[in-house]
């Protein structure tokens, strides 16, 4: 079981920030062997969805209101620590992210840029592919929409 909180950038503690950047770097840069600019200036606009287990950040997303990333609201930087994936925390953090968008932004239209190999995971959460596959940071991605 993870404890999920939603925070604005200004509500994040130094430890939250450190944990967030460490987890994102661990998975997106090291595990996926992808050199890219993770700190992209968008964290200040985002709401941060943090999933802690025993005081360790194990799952995370950032969410945006419509117009801040895509025309629609959006969820990005979806990440679960590798040793914790067997517990399906990806579903917990994504469901919490969808609910946070509904609560904070009063919309249920969400667009994501999903790594193609995770398409079925996102389908299981109600997201559907739109458009063709494309490369983002040399990793195959596909746009997906959620509409309730």
Task: Walk me through what this model shows.
The protein is α+β, with helices and mostly antiparallel strands. The protein has a single domain (3-107), classed as Gcn5-related N-acetyltransferase (GNAT) (Aminopeptidase, 3-Layer(aba) Sandwich), CATH 3.40.630. It has helices at residues 14-31, 89-105, 119-124; strands spanning 3-8, 47-53, 56-64, 73-80, 109-115, 127-136, 139-147. The chain has a seven-stranded mixed beta sheet, sandwiched between helices. The protein is globular and about 40 Å long. It starts with a strand and ends with a strand. The mean pLDDT is 96.
Which secondary structure elements does this structure contain, and how are they paired or packed?
Layout: E1 3-8, H1 14-31, E2 47-53, E3 56-64, E4 73-80, H2 89-105, E5 109-115, H3 119-124, E6 127-136, E7 139-147
Parallel strand pairs: 4-5
Antiparallel strand pairs: 1-2, 2-3, 3-4, 5-7, 6-7
Tally of domains? 1
Instruction: Provide mean pLDDT, rounded.
Output: 96
Structural class: alpha+beta
The CA-CA distance between the termini, in Å, is 26 Å
The CATH C-level name is: Alpha Beta
Q: Roughly what fraction of the amino acids lie in strands?
A: 35-45%
Task: Write down the CATH topology.
Answer: Aminopeptidase
Radius of gyration: 14 Å
CATH superfamily: Gcn5-related N-acetyltransferase (GNAT)
Number of helices: 3
Measured as a percent range, the helix fraction is 25-40%
Descriptive labels:
globular; Aminopeptidase; 28% helix; 7 strands; seven-stranded mixed sheet; 148 residues; 38% strand; alpha+beta; 3 helices
């Amino acid at each position: 079981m993870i404890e999920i909180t939603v925070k604005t950038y200004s509500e994040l503690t130094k430890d939250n920030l450190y944990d967030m950047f460490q987890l994102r770097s661990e998975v997106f840069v090291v595990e996926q062997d992808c050199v890219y600019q993770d700190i992209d200036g968008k964290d200040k606009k985002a709401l941060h969805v943090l999933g802690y287990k025993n005081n360790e950040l194990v799952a995370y997303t950032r969410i945006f209101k419509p117009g801040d990333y895509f025309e629609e609201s959006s969820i990005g930087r979806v990440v679960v620590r590798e040793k914790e994936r067997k517990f399906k925390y990806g579903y917990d953090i994504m469901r919490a992210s969808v609910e946070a968008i509904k609560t904070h932004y009063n919309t249920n239209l969400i667009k994501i840029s999903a790594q193609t190999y995770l398409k079925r995971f996102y389908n299981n959460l109600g997201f559907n592919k739109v458009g063709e596959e494309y490369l983002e940071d040399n990793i195959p991605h596909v746009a997906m929409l959620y509409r309730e």
